[in-house]
Specification:
The chain is an alpha+beta fold. About 30% of the residues lie in helices and about 30% in strands.
C-alpha cells in the first residue's frame, strides 16, 4: 500500500476546472479545487489498535529540546487516571544535540532505555487559509514558508501545499524549486461582502446584534448612519430592522465560510492521514468565524479526525502583531467616543476569529503562534523536528466502544522550568462508522464498482492532451445539467457542492490513479438562472503510461447524496 500511495502521487495530475459560464460568476460565487484521489479498498479491515502512542517533546526555558529523560521520569494519565507506559523510545533528529545522563545502575527488572530510534520521514502539509487572509497577510505567510523551504528542510521531509480556495496545491515533495514556484502562486481569495451591502459589519458585531445586545445594536445603528447616508431620517424601527437584517446576512455568510474552511481542512487531513510517516499540518490563517453550534460540532469532529490519523496541527496567525481597526476598507465610522468602541469591537473580533486556530492546535498537541510579526521564526520553530523527542505508548483499560474523546496528560519528574508538548487526547473505538466515514465509503464504493448510476444528470467526454513538459495526459470534461440540482438556501444565496472523481483502472481492473475535484457554488439568484439554462463544466486530467484503461467517472451531489457513476474504455497513446 505504501508503494501504491507513492505511485499515485506520481501519476495524478489535476488541471483547473473551467465553468461554462465563468464570466458570469463573481469571485464569491464559485470555488473549484482538485487533489489526488486514493480510494479505501472495499475489503479493508477497520483495525482497532490496543495501544495509544503519545509523542512527547520536553523543552527548557529557551525552547531547546531536552534529551535526558528515561521511561521512569514520565507519567501518563487517561481521563485523569494514571496508566502504565507499555513502551518507550527516544527519537533523535540530530547526531550531537542530545544530552545524556551518566550511566546508571538499573533496579532489578527495570528494562534499560533503548538507544535513540532513527527519525521517521515527515509529511508536512502547509495549509494556507486564503479565504481569510488579506493580500499582505498572504505575502507574510508565503515569505515565512519560502524561508523554511530554503533553509530548514531535513532529509526525508516531504512538503505538500494546500489552500482553502484549492486554487493552489502541490503533492508532497522535497523538490525545493517546485515548492518555491508553487508558493509564489499564492494569492488572497478573501471573501468580501457585496459592494451594494450597506451597512457592513464584521462577524463578531453581527453576532452580538443577533443576540440582541443593546450596546452592539446602538453601535450598529451609528455605523449604519455613517456608512449609508441614505438611511438618515428613517424611523428608528425601520433602521433597527435594516441593521438586524444586515447582521444576520453577515453572520450567515461568515458562518458558512468558516464551516467551509473546516470542511476543506478535513479533506486535507484525510489525505495526509494516508502518508507513511510522521504527519503534521501547519495552518496559516487570519482567522475564521466558528462560534455557531454547527461550526463547533465540525471543529470537534475535525480534531477527532486529526487524532485518529495521528496528525498534529500547528497554527500560524498570519495577521501578526498589528493594530486592529473596525473596517480595513476605509468605510467612514462614527467620530468621537464611538471610535474607541470601534477599536474595542475590532480587538474582540480578532480574538474571536482566532478560536479555530487555537482550538485545533491545542486539541492535537500542536502549537499556536500568534501576536508576533516574525512569522518565519514561528513557522520554523513549529515545523522543525526537535533534536530529541520521546515516543510513549499505553494500553487503555476498560474503554467503552462509544467513539468518545479521551483526554491525555503527560507529566515529567522535576519539570520546573520545562514545557511539555504532547497530544491532548484520543478517540475511543466506535462500533459503527461515523457519518463522514459512511459518506467516504459510499463514494469509494461508487468509484470501485462497475455498475452505472444516474443520480446527477451528467455527460463525459475525453481527449488526449499534453503538459507543458511534454507528458501525455488524458483530459476529461464533465458537463452537469444544473437545472436538476437541488440547491439549498443560505441567506440570500443558493448553495451546492459537487464532488467529481476521475479514476483509471488497468485491464485487470486494478485501480491505478485518480483525481478528485470539488466545486462549491454560492450563487446569486440571477446567476443560478443562467447556469440552470446552460449547465456547468468541470475539467480534470490524468497522466498515465501509454496503454488501454477503464475510465471511471463519479459525480456526487453532496447535499442530498445523489451519485452518478459511469465507465468507458480509453486509450492513452
Amino acid at each position: 500500500m505504501r508503494n501504491r500511495w507513492i505511485r499515485v502521487l506520481v501519476l495524478a495530475v489535476a488541471l483547473v476546472a473551467v465553468p461554462l459560464l465563468a464570466q458570469s460568476f463573481s469571485e464569491d460565487e464559485f470555488r473549484w479545487g482538485s487533489r489526488p484521489y486514493v480510494p479505501q479498498p472495499p475489503n479493508a479491515i477497520r483495525v482497532e489498535s490496543n495501544l495509544v502512542q503519545v509523542g512527547v517533546v520536553v523543552r527548557d526555558s529557551n525552547g531547546k529540546a531536552v534529551g535526558t529523560f528515561q521511561r521512569s521520569d514520565f507519567q501518563l494519565f487517561d481521563n485523569g487516571r494514571p496508566v502504565a507506559i507499555t513502551s518507550f523510545s527516544v527519537e533523535n533528529s540530530g547526531p550531537s544535540s542530545v544530552q545524556t545522563k551518566a550511566p546508571q545502575i538499573l533496579n532489578a527488572g527495570q528494562p534499560p532505555t533503548p538507544p535513540p530510534a532513527p527519525p521517521k520521514p515527515r509529511y508536512i502539509a502547509l495549509f494556507f487559509d486564503d479565504f481569510s487572509m488579506s493580500m499582505p497577510d498572504t505575502v507574510f505567510a508565503r515569505k515565512a514558508a519560502e524561508s523554511f523551504v530554503k533553509t530548514s528542510l531535513k532529509p526525508g521531509d516531504k512538503i505538500g501545499i494546500f489552500t482553502t480556495s484549492t486554487t493552489v496545491s502541490l503533492n508532497f515533495t522535497d523538490n525545493v524549486p517546485k515548492l518555491l514556484e508553487t508558493l509564489g502562486q499564492l494569492l488572497s481569495h478573501a471573501r468580501k461582502p457585496a459592494a451594494i451591502m450597506c451597512p457592513r459589519y464584521d462577524a463578531y458585531l453581527s453576532w452580538l446584534i443577533d443576540q440582541n445586545d443593546r450596546d452592539a445594536l446602538s453601535f450598529g445603528m451609528a455605523v449604519a448612519l455613517a456608512q449609508c447616508p441614505e438611511l438618515r431620517g428613517l424611523p428608528r424601527e425601520m433602521l433597527v430592522n435594516i441593521v438586524q437584517t444586515a447582521a444576520r446576512e453577515t453572520l450567515s455568510l461568515s458562518d458558512y465560510s468558516g464551516q467551509d474552511t473546516l470542511g476543506i481542512l478535513r479533506d486535507v487531513i484525510r489525505y495526509l492521514g494516508k502518508a507513511p510517516g510522521k504527519r503534521m499540518l501547519v495552518l496559516a490563517s487570519s482567522g475564521s468565524w466558528t462560534r455557531s453550534n454547527e461550526a463547533q460540532i465540525k471543529m470537534d469532529k475535525l480534531v477527532g479526525a486529526a487524532l485518529d490519523a495521528n496528525v498534529v496541527i500547528n497554527s500560524l496567525d498570519a495577521k501578526g502583531l498589528v493594530a486592529q481597526w473596525f473596517d480595513p476598507e476605509g468605510v467612514p465610522l462614527p467620530a468621537g467616543p464611538l471610535a474607541m468602541k470601534a477599536l474595542s469591537y475590532a480587538d474582540a473580533t480578532a480574538f474571536a476569529m482566532n478560536d479555530m486556530m487555537a482550538l485545533l492546535a491545542a486539541g492535537t498537541g500542536g502549537r499556536f503562534y500568534h501576536n508576533r510579526n516574525d512569522l518565519d521564526v514561528g513557522l520554523r520553530d513549529m515545523v522543525m523536528a526537535p533534536s530529541v523527542s520521546y515516543m510513549l505508548a499505553f494500553a487503555p483499560v476498560d474503554v467503552k466502544r462509544n467513539g468518545a474523546k479521551h483526554s491525555i496528560k503527560v507529566k515529567v519528574a522535576n519539570s520546573h522550568g520545562l514545557s511539555i508538548e504532547a497530544r491532548r487526547g484520543y478517540l475511543a473505538p466506535s462500533p459503527v462508522l461515523t457519518d463522514t466515514e459512511k459518506k467516504e465509503r459510499r463514494l469509494d464504493a461508487a468509484v470501485l464498482a462497475t455498475v452505472e448510476q444516474s443520480g446527477v444528470p451528467a455527460q463525459v467526454t475525453t481527449e488526449a492532451g499534453s503538459l507543458a513538459t511534454g507528458e501525455v495526459v488524458l483530459k476529461v470534461r464533465i458537463h452537469v445539467n444544473a437545472s436538476e440540482l437541488p440547491f439549498h438556501t443560505v441567506g440570500a444565496r443558493k448553495v451546492e457542492r459537487l464532488i467529481f472523481v476521475t479514476a483509471l483502472f488497468d485491464e485487470e481492473n486494478h485501480f491505478l490513479t485518480g483525481v478528485q475535484g470539488v466545486m462549491d457554488l454560492t450563487l446569486k439568484i440571477e446567476t443560478l438562472a443562467k447556469i440552470s439554462s446552460q449547465g456547468l463544466d468541470a475539467r480534470l486530467s490524468l497522466q498515465a503510461p501509454p496503454g488501454k484503461y477503464r475510465l471511471r467517472q463519479v459525480v456526487e451531489e453532496v447535499g442530498d447524496g445523489r451519485i452518478t457513476a459511469m465507465s468507458r474504455p480509453v486509450e492513452i497513446h
